Here is the input.
Amino acid sequence: MRVGVTGHMDLGPETTDLVAEALRAHLLELRETQPADMIGVSCLAPGADRIFARILLDMGGRLEVIMPSGEYTAELADPGSDGDPALAELLSRADFVRPIAEPLARPQVYVAVNDAMLESVDSLVAVWNGVASTKLGGTAHVVHTARSRSIPVKIIWPKGATRQS
Here is the structure.
């Protein structure tokens, strides 16, 4: 079973805990109903993607990563450090890392990454507050695209969850 993830990056600490609990419950339910190997597909953006990846790996699942561009890793790194330790740790635990051959991260690249992810999954889990958006490559766009392709989508947005401003 292959599960893709999309979701908000700007989750506060309380929301992170709520989302982690809801994601864990969803992945456990998937594993019970479909006991085949679970493979998660993610671009490892901060927030929802990384929470999903950690839970998946802790449950014994396998992780595939699609990297949007060479610039992406640099964008996510902490300035003045040797990079983002959370990203580096999750990349080191991934079974497969597939780069999209674009030097710059821009909306069209995120659309291409999301298309590649959706083409390779059986279902999608979206950590999404349900607010519509016209932002290409954003969570709302990915959910809409998945639904238009008849990919089952599970929305995760626990009661009390908020986005940071």
